[in-house]
Amino acid sequence: MNIEFKRLDHVMICIPEGAEQDARQFYGNVLGLEELTDLGYPIPNRAIWFQIGDIQLHIRAEGIQQLSQRHPAFEVTSLADAEYQLKSHGIAVKYLSKIPDRNRFSFRDPFGNRIELIEML
User: Is residue 96 predicted with pLDDT exceeding 90?
Assistant: First the structure.
């Protein structure tokens, strides 16, 4: 069984703590991206979300830590199938904060990179 990937949903990058206004200036004003501020639910972890083409760019302040929260997020057809596939190979999954209309979890690849999988409801 393979995980059936549908599309790239978003990419999250990190900025230094306290640099949120600089990020808004660069991504909103310099690059001209639309900031998403009212999605009908709170944006998790004080992140800043922008629309970039048909995906989203998520930006979050992050202090120095061993494992970064930077990640791509891929939409899959079945989160349950993906979880089964990963766990059958000994890979732990971590369920994340709730976002309406989707279920999601993340896992780390063998090199420590975080990858998020999303199933739209």
Answer: no
